[in-house]
Structure formats: C-alpha cells, structure tokens
Amino acid sequence: MAGASIDRPNISAAASGFKEWICSFSGCDGGNENWPIWICGIESGFARNREWDEATYKREINDYYSKKLPAEMALGKYSPPCKSSFSEHLQYQYVLKAAKLCTVIHGAELEQVREYAKELLVFRFNLSPIALRNTDKSLWEQHHLDRITGLATKELFRAWCFLHRYPWIAGQVTEHRPKLVIGTGTGYLTDFLCAFGDGGAIDSIHREDIAAGDTSRPLYWTKVNNATTIAVTPFLGGATGLNSDELIKAFGRRLANLMNA
Predict the structure, then answer these.
(1) Structural contact between residues 157 and 140, judged by C-beta atoms closer than 8 angstroms
(2) Are 198 and 174 in contact (CB under 8 A)?
(3) Does a structural domain hold residue 8?
C-alpha cells in the first residue's frame, strides 16, 4: 500500500488536525501504555450514564459530535489525560468483563476483580477513536461525521485507519513492547493483526477453541516478535461472545500461558 492515499475534500476547519489526531492515542480509555498488557476494542460505545434520562442522553450525544469531538480533533495529537485503573469505570459491562479477564491473566481469582481493578493499569483503547453507539454504518452520516472528518463514508474512514492509524499503532507496539495485546472482536481479526502486526512481521496465526463446560469459543493468536503476543478473542458479551464468567476464566488462563511462554 506504499504511496496509497485517500483524498479528504471539504475538511472542516475544526478537524484540521484530523491526521495528527488519528495517528495518536485518540480512543484511549485509560491505563498506562508501558503496562505489560494492552486491551483493544473496536470502537468506543457511546455509553449511557444510568442517571441520564432520554433527553439528557440525546443532548450528550449531540454535544459530543457537534462540539467535543471536533474540538478534540482540532488539537491534533491526543495524549491520554491520566493513567487511570479499571476501578473508575466498572459500571460499564465491557470494562467490568475486561477487568475480570485481566484479573485472571494476572493469576488472581475472577471474584477478586474489584480488589485488583484498583491496581491494574492495563492500557485500554480502540481501533477507531470515534465513539458510536454500535457499528451501524449509517451512524456516520446521521452524526455528520462525513463533514467533521472530510471522509464521506465509514468505509473510507476505515480505509484511512488501515493506511495511517494502524501503522502508527504498530509502531507504538514496537516502542513500548507490551507482552500481550488483546483484541476483542474476532470479526475484526484482520484489523487487529494489521494494527499490531509490526509492519507485517507475522509468520503464522494460530486458532484454538477454548472450552468452558459444554461451550467453546475461538481464540486467535500470533507472536509479533520476541516481546509481544497478539491474541484476538470474541467480543466480551453477546450471544457468541465471552458471555459467562466460566468462559472469561478459561480465556484468562490460556492468555496467561501465552503471555508468559
């Protein structure tokens, strides 16, 4: 893809820092980039605070897309504001399940999650730095992201990530050398491998079925270099995801073995 480009006409003044913003830790949810474990989702879900009524929720969504996101992009390179632990966000199901998984990887019992969550500075971020309620492509135009970014469709934005964001992320893996990078969402296996694959330095990709009782789920993993293993798990929830504590325990134990191999 050397030399490939995607034109971005009609870029708004507010998003003039888009390329610098996209090639940074935008989309970071907390943690410490020097921690031995990174965990990466697909894109930040626009989580609803339990105290919000419907009108407040809609107002928060509107403020994010019309004010907060363009303002953040305009600043260019994004640096995480703090190295926060899991404990500050356990009210969200994805974060709670990620904390459970990492608690098991660190050798503790899953039931100790709230105790360990205070200490775990697992680096948490997303393939896409733009928060959306779900992966529905129509949300791109609905929230005027075509005008904010200068990219007409979500498909073009994803291509932009392949060309610019993912190589930058791969460089951060090389620089910070985490022992284990976990991608959550096997439907985005290609994205995770491109984002963390150290410029294509992947010789083989392994697939295993991890069982918990009568249920099993697929796990994909590969070694990027002598320092880092990439593992891609199902999403942390949903009918086909890691939707039980037993599955989370089984995956956590296997990931611990891979990290320490």
Answers:
(1) yes
(2) yes
(3) no
